[in-house]
Input
Amino acid sequence: MTDTRRVDTPSGVRGTVVALGIGVLAVAALFVIDAFVPTLFNDPLSTRAQDALTLSISVLIESMPFVALGVVLSIVVQVWIPPGMIERWMPRRAWARRAVLSLLGMFIPVCECGNVPFARGLLMRGFSVSDTMTFLIAAPIVNPIVIITTHQAFGMDDGILIARLLGGFAIANLIGWLYSRHPSPDALLTDRFSATCKMVTHETGGRGRKTLAQFVVELRAVMPALIIGSALAGLVQVIVPRSTLLAIGSNPALSIVAMMALAMVVSICSNVDSFFALSFASTFTPGSLVAFLLVGPLVDVKMLALMRTTFTTRTLAGVVVVVLLAAFAIGTVVNLLA
Output
């Protein structure tokens, strides 16, 4: 079996050090805020620290089953589906192929966390970066469980369900088109992931041996990012006063900004985030709820940590900008029409 230690590149080590550094800074921020602005929070520091730990563990436990399912699906795509079988059913035109891939999430009942390993599997299989990104961005919103839970929470009120589905589809295809124009697609990927692709390509042995090797590779890549992302999500929630975000809920523009910020902070699974958003329906505008439901599954801190296992920081920064601008525009249109 190929030695999996070859994927531990210096860039991967630097990424881990940076992530740990961010965590240390976040903890230090708790003490700094408590020292200089003691009236900002109602609860003492010890209570907020305990809340951060509880929130981090809850995000981690909520995400792990879907990550495991995503790893299994990724292995199925890479090892067990014969070469050319998926590609044979894909349209030849790039825009049509991306449109089909953006709807693939309807057949994969996992949340955004599980879609990351599956997307890695598509890349290792030979799909282009732009095609894979289209799937990755659309899948957390068009998956069947998300559609059902969003309908249960909001029904057809104010067009929130329709705006979420059409908005997610449009954002995914916009990002796919933008990155299809990139002159060097391989530069969008991290060195560590490129090394993993080479290792998997040259893996020898039968399907059982390849399955085991790939399972280890994917867990080693995804689990540290998931743990770090969950910890950051918990820390950010206790550092940022939620009352500050809620105070501007009635303003058509500021409410959208506030809910987008909240979506990136709370890192709730897309399968259940509709019920969380429903609790704000009486104080926030419909457009801000749509923006929350679009931004959360795509670029919350947990999702970004997972995507960083595959895509460079510069690539993710571009994705965040596009998602935020598009979500704000869609939310504004919903507010005007509602």
